[in-house]
Structure of Lipoprotein:
Amino acid sequence: MRKFVLLAILAALAACGQRAPLETYPGESLPVAPTGADAPATADELLEREAQAAPERSVELRRRSEEREDDPFDLPPPE
């Protein structure tokens, strides 16, 4: 019985989220179109990230420790 109640509560919480298209506040407008563009960007286009803004992560794991290579820029502080 408790599992059923817990499941019902979780299902109700999951259904609470509402997805609707984004809109501007009354009296506000989207940013002006960039130079050379035919029309201003839509809200969805403004939310898309370029590949450089969100690069993929490198998940290469080290299996064992390795010696570090010499770093030519690792200089002692000036005196």
Summary: Residues 9 and 15 are 10 Å apart (CA to CA).
